Amino acid sequence: MDHRVKNIIFLFLVSSALWSAEKAIKIEMINTPLKEIINELEQQSEHLFIYNEYVNDKTVYSVSSENETLKEVLEKLFSSSTVQFKIRSPHVILKSINEPTSETTIQRQKLGTLSGYVKDAESGETLIGATIIGPSGSYVLTNNFGFYSFEVPEGINQFTLSHIGYGTIVETIKVEGKTTHDFNLTFKATSLSEVEVSSDSYKKERTRTLQNVIQFNRQDLIRFPALLGVPDINRIMKSQAGVSSVGEGTSGFNVRGGNIDQNLILLDGAPFYNSSHLFGLFSIFNTASIKDLKLYTGGIPARFGGRASSVLDIRLRDGNTQKFAAEGSIGPIVTHLQLETPLVKDKSAILISGRRSFIDLFQDLSNSTNEEKVYFYDFTAKTHYRINPKNTVYLSGFFGADNLNFEIDETKKNGPKKEKTKFNWNQSSVSFKWNRIFNGKLFMNLSSVFSQYDYGLSSDSSDNPIIDLSGDFNWNARIRTFETKTNLTYNLNPENTFKGGGSVTKHSFSPTKIEAASKYSQNISLETENAVEIGLFGEWETQWKRFQINTGLRWSQFSNIGPGDVYQYAPGSKSLATIVSSKTYEKNDVIKAFNNFEPRIALKYKWSEDLALKANYNRMYQYIHLISNTLGVVPYDIWKPSGTYIEPLKVDQFAIGFALNKVKDKKRIDVGIEAYYKSFNNLIEYKDGANLIANKYIETEFIPAKGISYGLEISADYVLNQWFGNFNYTYSRSERKTDSNLDEINQGEYYPSNFDRPHVLNVNTSRKLGSRWEATASFTFRSGRPITIPTGSYDLLQGRHFNFSERNEYRISPIHRLDLSFNLYPKERNKRWKSHWTFGVYNVYARKNPLSVIPSTTSDKRTSTYEFSLLGAAIPFVSYQFKF
Amino acid sequence: MKLRSLTLLFLIIFTISCVKEVQYDIKPQSEYAIFTVLHNLTDHIEFHISKTLAIYENFESEEIQDKFDFTVRIYEYPSGAGTDPTSGTLFLEAINPKILVNNNYGIGRFITNIPLTRKAVIGNGYALEVTIGDNVIRSAVEYLPEPIPVKKSSVSSEELTFDLSFDDPPDVINYYSFYENYYIKPISEEVLIPITSEIQFIASNTRTDVLFSGKTNTNFFSELKQLEFYYETPYEVHVESRLLTFEHEEYEFLRKVKLSSEQSYEKVDEESSGPFTLFSSPPVKLNGNLTLIEGEGNKNIFGFFIVAGADSNGTNILEIDN
């Protein structure tokens, strides 16, 4: 193992040992009611005690301690009583042995079901992942719609609720049969106290989750230092363990060695094909309208399918059902405004959010012509209506677009020559969801989503003083997805949950339609490719003693359907020269179909209250593929469905690790260490110099390939008094290998992928500075990515050419960068108006982080090679956020 | 390329990019690059040979020689003779041919014109052999394909274009190169003096027949090269539009030559070239049908021996302001 990895593990072990020393408790209470003793212990230990009437009877207790831990004090206190205790920081659960056991309860006492929603008390927004601890210490979490279902003995029960950023509450509820009750949690929200709450948000409690999941709420998202003051999900994702990319400013991200098209990006369930504005500089998602975001990197549940490496599940806020609210921000590049209002109080609300860049204003100031405009914008809207406690419907939509209009005037350079070029792409989605609660235990979500990605490119040289022969054209392409899916969740009891459902997805890919706009250009239209994908899944999540298991199976069926022409090739390497015939398929004819089973299992063994061991395995199939061999993804890259010449991508992943969660006083550390191994089959690689643009015979450019990736991820979230943040280090490798005797890259040996960065370190830390300031520093270090460099030069035909090393044989210089961000919370004169300023510097010490190498023929006597940095300077930013 | 231009313009505006020169600890291997074209219309072959040189300062390149000794041979094979390179008869032999251009870019390129005693024959096979010291490089046997006839060609002096029409045979996939040769014709003489290197233009407009789809009287348009002409006596400029027909491998090689050219920048700065690399594809290696059969070094040689069918419809006068 790399010595650096060892050092980091050692540091964590030392820190864990230090955390295990608990605070000493001093107490002397003789013949005192238990409730009073508990109150004292709660104050000193900062733990919350959970108990019921079986514990809190009229018995009096005595306890005396000078300098002992909470555990030792509790052992003394209950040494001769019928009460047992369990410390589950930050809670202590007390239970009387006189309390009926679950078996006896079933015999003696009827079980009832408590179900409902957990909401934000101020806005009525439902809360995802809130924890509800029941009377026996068992707990459930709210689902993606804030719904919970809890089976408990009928009668009066005490429930403790907590959620990231919210205060903990204890409520006593009388449960009879099927009882519904909505809990309301209060957000700790007054300017800087918001920061205090945010520190809480780092308690992700890896010991609690089964899967490898990285979760953020809105408060987490806005704290990260942002390029030009625009919070960016893609950039935040790239700072997480196991997530990599080819470089700064590139679109998409790579999870555990997977290509960027292997990430299923969902916004309210609708898939997105391009998640960036301006070629990758900014995320397409507006963080202001996001309620919750989860990135699954391993142990992916069976309910997700269609992509092979990760799931980024983004949920939009539902809107404020209590009162009108607005918020916005003003920055140098982007301004946004969000409005939300109840339509029917407590039942219905609407949220509308929009962002627009104002780059074009600067263009106007710089004397650009009216034709020259570069801007992007996006709109998000969502509404919901709670028909009754059992039925709620949601409708959300997104539209984001980039427009780049240029006028190129080369008159001075090459004689009279003008050309107008328009380049635009947009992503839109609509999601409709219907939630139905059948009997307090069965929750159904039925949804239909539509997603569309369009791009267009046009060239107009009609204003040229002389005729332009480059050929005017209009180029359009489109990807469309319709999907209907049902998810059923049956909460049998807190220990057993069953999920099942299915989905039907219609994919439509129109890769290229080029209409000639002059006699010098030609029409090119590639056939629209259609496919239908069906998925059925079942999941069972259970707890048994110290074990927790989520196991599931997904069956996926994918049919590439007509109309379409499929070319037949002679045996050997495919090329235009080896086409022997073509076969025509009519509409809805099945060109090629695939059926596959995808087993998933995630295990957790709770070693102690603080420590959990985890292991998971998942097999994923992916049937749609991004066809791109460029370093960064560009909007005009095409997607293709699996079919005659593209096998479905199959990825198997194994992971094992442990999670440690330590809490003491105002200190918390949550550590996760995980090792993984992934194998990739049926990857697509490309022949040397492959032509992927508007190519009717694109399969002739493919080389079948396989790959492996493996790594060790260490991550920690921490709160140390005024300091809070997270840290992660990943050692990983990602390699590819062509799987063909006819066309090989690097003689058919394994070679590193473009985004193989063995060492990645990210540190994010925040601190409150007095009552009005908060500072955040973010540091990242990444090994240089593999590159293919020129090793010599020669002259042939049209000039100088280079002979190159083996593919990705060398590495570019490492990347490291420090970003700083400061939040200033002005004194609030108006209770309702809340605002803060954000200042910062991106790339503080102006590191020129290289993205690529450029061979050059600058000199007459020798050639040169340069490293290119996209963001090679310190970039200050300021923005103003407000809400009321 | 328009897409690249757009990308460039955007990134100029919105990024704070930069470039810095880097050195890698790489010792270059000395290799040769060879390119030549043989077709049925030509009475000579234009032979290009280049030697790879170091590009990093930490290793000195070998001294660039003014000349070096090499022998060029072409063997001929009757139609249907197969691919055994040892069965051919000598078609051309040139020992240490006279160098016309050398050291063009300071990296050791040599160009020579070697006259042919007779023209190549359609249907026959040809193989190139080059001997440089102890190294022997040989091509595969390439058969000269039937050329596609040019039906009409014209030049527009106003639009500075040339076009030619031809019938694209249906049910056959062909690969073409469209280009123009320039000649000076002194007014008082009947002789056409070639003034451009044909081989330099061959890669400029290569196409598969996918766009022509087996149509008759299909046309190809292209811009004329913007050349400057200097001749002391009154003259006409004649342009001959040629249509070369060759095989898939030749087409792929010429396409990669263009790609390779785009992967090297004449001027490197953050505005002109850096942003392009965001969207660059993996580097192209220009290996073709030439193999090192004797000697030390990489067996795959850069370059190609192209054997093509050629046709033209005579020359057209380009009206220029003398």
Fold and architecture overview:
The complex is a heterodimer of chains A (884) and B (322). By secondary structure, chain A is mostly beta strands. Chain A folds into 4 domains: 23-99, Phage tail protein beta-alpha-beta fold (3-Layer(bab) Sandwich), CATH 3.55.50.30; 102-187, Sandwich (Immunoglobulin-like), CATH 2.60.40; 193-314, TonB-dependent receptor, plug domain (Ferric Hydroxamate Uptake Protein, Chain A, domain 1, Beta Complex); 315-883, Beta Barrel (Maltoporin, Chain A), CATH 2.40.170. Helix content of chain A is 9%, strand content 56%. Chain A has 9 helices and 56 strands. By secondary structure, chain B is mainly beta. Chain B has 2 domains: 2-146 and 265-308, no CATH class; 150-246 and 311-318, Sandwich (Immunoglobulin-like). Helix content of chain B is 10%, strand content 42%. Chain B has helices at residues 2-14, 198-201, 248-262; strands spanning 18-22, 32-39, 44-51, 71-77, 89-95, 101-102, 109-115, 125-132, 135-139, 142-143, 150-156, 161-166, 175-186, 193-194, 206-208, 218-223, 235-246, 287-294, 300-318. Chain B has a 15-stranded mixed beta sheet that branches. Chain B has a 3-stranded antiparallel beta sheet with strand order 11-12-16, with no helix packed on it. The mean pLDDT of chain B is 80. The interface between A and B is large, with 87 and 89 residues. Strand 55 of chain A pairs antiparallel with strand 1 of chain B.
